Task: inverse folding
């Protein structure tokens, strides 16, 4: 039992160490990529500063005199310091740390290497402090990406760590491509051109799940919502033609390529075959058909009154009507009764005060 318990503790310890090392390796790769990005930002800003200071000490007056007396500014330490001061934002810790740590390299390049090595990024980031790699290569030794440094991932993807001392060189393929070398096509694409070093994946017809060509007759398998016809071509399935309809009674079915959608019927309809009052299967309550379309029934204009109580008036609404008491009457216990005179007078006085807020003083 003691031996088994010790073995289990040892296994747990080894697992923890393995996870820790994997975490550290992942972080290290991320740091290496970040260092290269920082270095590239620095050299890009150096180029901008170089351009900005080309004529900085020339006033535009006596040009001949300025060119004689100030020509040394072009290669001066003063100009170098002005450029270096603008390399980093004050808040960028990594950028400022890298500049401070390698400031002597900028001086070396400025005074001794600039003519022979005009590409600062290559000389500084790749060859001197070695935080970057040439394009198309990756890792500590700047190994070529899959597919070669000229066309990483055969031109169909991104090489992890490309141009940095980090990454693992694996390909992240572009949309439509897959595989270790990004030479294979995903479902919905086919190889229009393919050899050991080149692959061109072209999208299949919209009806194909997989295909060997660009038309709906080149499908190896139809997508859902499509079916093969007598000519072995994938054609749209009209779900709306099925019985019963896939939609509810208050909806109509709208067929689309490879699918369908259910749309609400017009409110004047009780069931419909399409949009609008002229596509009703039957008219909803309060509507009737007039010249092929469902329109509102004006219940208040019918010969037989729908508001049967005394002192009651009819008001038509869309699809219905309401009965309300006539002017001077109010509803009490389901009947329209005369408003008492005292209440009438108060109501009239209130109305007049509201209508004439600036009455007699």
Result:
């Amino acid at each position: 039992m003691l031996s088994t318990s010790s073995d289990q503790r040892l296994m747990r310890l080894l697992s923890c160490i393995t996870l820790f090392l994997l975490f550290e390796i992942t972080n290290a790769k991320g740091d290496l990529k970040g260092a290269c990005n920082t270095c590239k930002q620095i050299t890009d800003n150096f180029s901008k500063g170089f351009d900005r200071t080309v004529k900085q000490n020339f006033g535009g007056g006596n040009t001949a005199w300025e060119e004689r007396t100030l020509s040394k500014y072009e290669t001066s330490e003063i100009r170098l310091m002005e450029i270096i001061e603008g390399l980093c934002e004050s808040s960028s810790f990594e950028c400022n740390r890298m500049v401070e740590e390698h400031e002597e390299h900028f001086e070396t390049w400025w005074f001794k290497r600039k003519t022979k090595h005009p590409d600062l990024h290559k000389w500084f980031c790749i060859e001197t402090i070695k935080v970057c790699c040439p394009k198309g290569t990756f890792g500590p030794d700047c190994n070529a990406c899959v597919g070669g440094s000229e066309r990483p991932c055969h031109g169909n993807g991104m090489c992890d760590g490309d141009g940095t001392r980090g990454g693992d060189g694996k390909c992240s393929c572009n949309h439509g491509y897959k595989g270790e070398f990004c030479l294979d096509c995903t479902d919905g694409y086919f190889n229009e051109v393919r050899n050991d070093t080149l692959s061109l994946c072209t999208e299949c017809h919209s009806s194909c799940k997989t295909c060997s060509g660009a038309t709906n007759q080149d499908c190896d398998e139809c997508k859902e919502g499509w079916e093969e016809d007598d000519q072995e071509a994938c054609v749209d399935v009209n779900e709306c033609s099925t019985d019963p309809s896939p939609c509810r009674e208050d909806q109509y079915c709208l067929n689309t390529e490879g699918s369908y959608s259910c749309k609400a019927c017009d409110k004047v309809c009780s069931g419909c075959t399409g949009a609008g009052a002229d596509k009703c299967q039957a008219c909803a309550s309060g509507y009737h058909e007039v010249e092929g379309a469902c329109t509102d029934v004006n219940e208040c204009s019918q010969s037989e009154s729908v508001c049967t109580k005394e002192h009651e008036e009819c008001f038509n609404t869309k699809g219905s009507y309401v009965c309300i008491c006539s002017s001077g009457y109010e509803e009490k216990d389901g009947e329209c009764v005369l408003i008492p005179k005292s209440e009438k007078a108060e109501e009239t006085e209130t109305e007049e005060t509201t209508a004439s807020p600036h009455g007699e003083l």
Notes: The CA atoms of residues 200 and 207 lie 20 Å apart.
